[in-house]
C-alpha cells in the first residue's frame, strides 16, 4: 500500500509491514516479561538489602510497562494483518497505535537509564537479581537502538514533500497543478538520488565523466520511482506473485505452444559450431575479470597456482598497464586461457567510468586475434551500466537510426581509441596477419564488445563477436538487425541482464502494480507463501490472486492508489518518461541469440548431480519480459555460465551419433 504518513511526512514503510517485526518483538518481550516476573517472584524475599526497595519498585514498574508494551505490539500486529496491499481501510487505526507505541519508548528509556544508574552505583543485593537487572538494562537499550536504526532505514528524504495522496480520482487536481506537483517531486527525487549515489561512490572520483554518470543514474532512478507510491515490501510481494504467475503460465502451456518448428540439418550444424566457439572464447571473457574470478572458481587451489606470478618482478616482455595486483591478474589470465606470456599483446586493468579493462591476445588454436573486454566488477562499471540513456552512434556503415546505450557506447569508444590510436591491433596483425579478429566479453563487457565489433566492422570486415549474457537495452532495431551476421550472443536460463532494459523495467513496474492490485490476500501471507514456494516448491496455480487474464487499458482502483496523481502511468498512457522515444527508445540485444535453458527436474533440493539443458536459437522477442525466479541472478554469473557450457558441449559431443528428436531444441544431460 502507499507508505504510512506519520508526523506529517511519508515513510518508506506500509501499515501492513509490521507483522514480522511485531511478532519478533512480541517473542522477545514475552520471554523478557516472563523472565522478569519469574525473577521477581522467586527473589522478592531477598530484596531486603540496601537499595532493595528501589530494585523491587523497579521490577514491578518494569513488569507493568512490559505488559502494556506487549498489549500495544499485539494490537499493532493484529491490525497489520488486516486488509490487503491495496485495501488499507481495515488498518486505519494503525497510525494511532504507532503513536502510542512510540510514546511508550519515553518511559522505557527513562527506566533503562535508571536501571543503568543503579547498576553503576553497585547495589548490594542477591547476585542473581543483580545479573537480572543488568540483562534487563542491556535488552532495553538493544531494543531502543534497534528502533532508532529502523527509523533511520525507513526515513524517506522526500516524505516531507509528498502530501498524502487524496483518495479521489485524478480530477482532484487540474492537469497544470498535477504536472507541477509531479515535476517538483522528480526534481527533488533527482537531487536526493544524486546525493545517495555520490555518497555510495565517494571513492570513485570527481572528474567530468563521473559527474555526468552521477546525473544520468540519478535521473534514471528518480524517473523510475517517482510516479509510484510503493514501499520495498510491496515490490518484494509483487515479484513473488509474478514468479508464481509466470510458473503457472509456463506449466499450462501446451507443447505445440513451445515447439514451433524442427531445426534443419544446417541449423543444427551451425548451432554446434557456434556452441563450440562460445565454449572456447568464454575462457577469454572470464580471464578478463582477472584474479578475483579465478580465486572464486578455484577457492582451494587458485592462490597456490597464481601465487608465484603475484610476486614475480615486472618485465618488459608484455604490455601490462593500469590497476593494482597486475601480476596476480596476469597469472590468473595465463591459467584461465592456457596461453603463454608471448601470446599477449596488451593487458589493461585501467578502470574508470566509461573506461573498461581489456586484453588482446593471439589465439593460435583458432587462429584469431582475441580482444576480451571485462564485465562489471567495480563501482565505476556500475555507473557505466546505469548511464542508460540512448545516444546516436557514428558508424561507417549505411545503417540508419543508429542508437545505443550511452554508457556502454562510451566504453566501447574508449577501447576502440586504444586499439586503433595506440596501434595495439596493428601490432597484433603485424605478428599474425592471416588471423581473424574476434571480440568477446561477458555482461557489460559483452555489450561493449558488441558495439566495438560494429565500430571495427569497416576496417576489419571478417571481425566476429561472441557476447556472453549481454544486456538487452543495447542497440536500436536497425543495429540489432545489422549485427546478426557477425555477432552471436549466449544467454543462460532466466538471466535477468539479457532481459534488462529501461523499457522492460517500466513493463515490470506495471506488471507489479497489476498483480498487487488483483491480490486478495494480506501481504504477510504472500511473503510467507513466497518463502515456502522458493524453498520447497509447490503448485503455482494456487496463486493468492484473482487474475482475469485480460489486458485492461486503464489502471484498476487499487493501482490508482499506488500511482502518483498526474503521472503518465496513472492513465497508462504511452508517453511515460521511461518510454520517451528520444531519451529511452526501445533497445535490443546484439546478434543472433543462443539460449541455454534448464529443463527437467531442477527442484529446490534436487538429488540430481547436474543440471540438464535445452539449446536453441532464440528470437529477441523471447527476452522481451523480465522473468522472476531464484536463478535470475545466479544464471548471470560467469562461473555458472562456464559450467553450463562445459556440460552442454561435452554432452552434445557424446551424442553426435544419437538420432535427433523433433523440436526446436536439442536436450542434453
Automatic annotation (TrEMBL):
Keywords: Calcium, Cell membrane, Hydrolase, Lipid degradation, Lipid metabolism, Membrane, Metal-binding, Phosphoprotein, Transmembrane, Transmembrane helix. It is found in: Cell membrane. Its EC number is 3.1.1.116. It catalyses: a 1,2-diacyl-sn-glycerol + H2O = a 2-acylglycerol + a fatty acid + H(+); 1,2,3-tri-(5Z,8Z,11Z,14Z-eicosatetraenoyl)-glycerol + H2O = 1,2-di-(5Z,8Z,11Z,14Z-eicosatetraenoyl)-glycerol + (5Z,8Z,11Z,14Z)-eicosatetraenoate + H(+); a triacylglycerol + H2O = a diacylglycerol + a fatty acid + H(+); 1,2,3-(4Z,7Z,10Z,13Z,16Z,19Z-docosahexaenoyl)-glycerol + H2O = 1,2-di-(4Z,7Z,10Z,13Z,16Z,19Z-docosahexaenoyl)-glycerol + (4Z,7Z,10Z,13Z,16Z,19Z)-docosahexaenoate + H(+). It is a multi-pass membrane protein. Its cofactor is Ca(2+). The keyword Cell membrane applies. Belongs to the AB hydrolase superfamily. Lipase family. Lipase that catalyzes the hydrolysis of arachidonic acid (AA)-esterified diacylglycerols (DAGs) to produce the principal endocannabinoid, 2-arachidonoylglycerol (2-AG) which can be further cleaved by downstream enzymes to release arachidonic acid (AA) for cyclooxygenase (COX)-mediated eicosanoid production. Preferentially hydrolyzes DAGs at the sn-1 position in a calcium-dependent manner and has negligible activity against other lipids including monoacylglycerols and phospholipids. This is Diacylglycerol lipase-beta.
Amino acid at each position: 500500500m502507499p507508505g504510512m504518513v506519520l508526523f506529517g511526512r511519508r515513510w518508506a514503510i506500509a501499515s501492513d509491514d509490521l507483522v514480522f517485526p511485531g511478532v519478533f518483538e512480541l517473542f522477545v518481550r514475552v520471554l523478557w516479561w516472563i523472565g522478569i516476573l519469574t525473577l521477581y517472584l522467586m527473589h522478592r524475599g531477598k530484596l531486603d538489602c540496601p537499595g532493595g526497595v528501589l530494585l523491587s519498585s523497579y521490577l514491578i514498574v518494569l513488569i507493568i510497562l512490559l505488559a502494556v508494551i506487549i498489549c500495544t505490539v499485539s494490537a499493532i500486529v493484529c491490525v497489520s494483518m488486516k486488509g490487503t496491499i491495496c485495501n488499507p481501510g481495515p488498518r486505519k487505526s494503525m497510525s494511532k497505535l504507532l503513536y502510542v507505541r512510540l510514546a511508550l519508548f519515553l518511559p522505557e528509556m527513562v527506566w533503562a537509564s535508571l536501571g543503568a544508574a543503579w547498576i553503576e552505583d553497585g547495589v548490594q543485593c542477591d547476585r542473581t537479581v543483580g545479573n537480572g537487572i543488568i540483562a534487563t538494562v542491556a535488552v532495553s537499550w538493544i531494543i531502543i537502538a534497534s528502533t532508532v536504526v529502523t527509523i533511520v532505514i525507513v526515513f524517506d528524504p522526500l516524505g516531507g514533500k509528498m502530501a498524502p495522496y487524496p483518495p479521489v480520482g485524478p480530477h482532484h487536481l487540474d492537469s497544470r497543478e498535477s504536472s507541477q506537483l509531479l515535476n517538483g517531486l522528480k526534481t527533488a527525487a533527482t537531487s536526493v538520488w544524486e546525493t545517495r549515489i555520490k555518497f555510495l561512490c565517494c571513492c570513485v572520483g570527481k572528474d567530468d565523466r563521473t559527474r555526468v554518470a552521477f546525473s544520468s543514474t540519478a535521473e534514471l532512478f528518480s524517473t523510475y520511482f517517482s510516479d509510484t507510491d510503493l514501499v520495498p515490501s510491496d515490490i518484494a510481494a509483487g515479484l513473488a506473485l509474478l514468479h508464481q504467475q509466470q510458473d503457472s503460465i509456463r506449466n499450462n502451456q501446451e507443447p505445440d505452444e513451445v515447439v514451433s518448428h524442427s531445426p534443419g540439418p544446417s541449423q543444427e550444424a551451425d548451432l554446434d559450431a557456434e556452441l563450440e566457439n562460445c565454449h572456447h572464447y568464454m575462457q577469454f571473457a572470464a580471464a578478463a575479470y582477472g584474479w578475483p574470478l579465478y580465486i572464486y572458481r578455484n577457492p582451494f587451489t587458485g592462490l597456490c597456482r597464481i601465487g608465484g606470478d603475484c610476486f614475480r618482478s615486472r618485465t618488459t616482455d608484455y604490455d601490462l598497464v593500469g590497476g593494482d595486483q597486475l601480476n596476480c591478474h596476469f597469472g590468473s589470465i595465463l591459467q584461465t586461457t592456457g596461453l603463454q606470456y608471448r601470446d599477449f599483446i596488451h593487458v589493461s586493468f585501467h578502470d574508470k567510468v566509461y573506461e573498461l579493462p581489456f586484453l588482446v591476445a593471439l589465439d593460435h588454436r583458432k587462429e584469431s586475434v582475441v580482444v576480451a573486454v571485462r564485465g562489471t566488477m567495480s563501482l565505476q562499471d556500475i555507473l557505466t551500466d546505469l548511464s542508460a540513456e540512448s545516444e546516436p552512434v557514428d558508424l561507417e556503415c549505411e545503417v540508419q537510426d543508429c542508437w545505443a546505450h550511452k554508457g556502454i557506447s562510451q566504453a566501447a569508444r574508449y577501447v576502440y581509441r586504444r586499439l586503433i590510436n595506440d596501434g595495439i591491433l596493428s601490432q597484433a596483425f603485424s605478428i599474425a596477419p592471416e588471423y581473424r579478429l574476434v571480440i568477446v566479453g561477458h555482461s557489460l563487457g559483452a555489450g561493449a564488445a558488441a558495439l566495438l565489433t560494429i565500430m571495427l566492422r569497416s576496417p576489419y570486415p571478417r571481425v566476429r563477436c561472441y557476447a556472453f549474457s549481454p544486456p538487452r537495452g543495447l542497440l536500436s532495431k536497425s543495429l540489432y538487425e545489422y549485427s546478426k551476421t557477425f555477432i552471436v550472443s549466449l544467454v543462460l536460463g532466466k538471466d535477468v541482464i539479457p532481459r534488462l532494459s529501461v523499457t522492460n523495467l517500466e513493463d515490470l513496474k506495471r506488471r507489479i502494480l497489476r498483480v498487487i492490485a488483483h491480490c486478495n490476500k494480506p501481504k504477510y501471507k504472500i511473503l510467507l507463501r513466497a518463502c515456502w514456494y522458493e524453498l520447497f516448491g509447490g503448485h503455482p496455480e494456487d496463486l493468492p490472486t484473482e487474475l482475469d487474464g485480460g489486458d485492461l487499458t486503464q489502471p484498476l482502483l487499487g493501482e490508482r492508489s499506488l500511482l502518483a496523481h498526474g503521472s503518465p502511468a496513472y492513465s497508462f498512457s504511452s508517453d511515460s518518461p521511461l518510454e520517451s522515444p528520444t531519451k529511452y527508445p526501445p533497445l535490443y540485444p546484439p546478434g543472433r541469440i543462443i539460449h541455454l535453458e534448464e529443463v527437467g527436474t531442477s527442484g529446490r533440493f534436487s538429488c540430481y548431480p547436474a543440471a540438464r539443458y535445452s539449446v536453441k536459437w532464440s528470437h529477441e522477442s523471447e527476452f522481451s519480459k523480465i522473468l522472476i525466479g531464484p536463478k535470475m541472478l545466479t544464471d548471470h554469473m560467469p562461473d555458472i555460465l562456464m559450467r553450463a557450457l562445459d556440460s552442454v558441449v561435452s554432452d552434445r559431443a557424446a551424442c553426435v551419433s544419437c538420432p535427433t528428436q523433433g523440436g526446436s531444441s536439442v536436450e542434453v544431460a
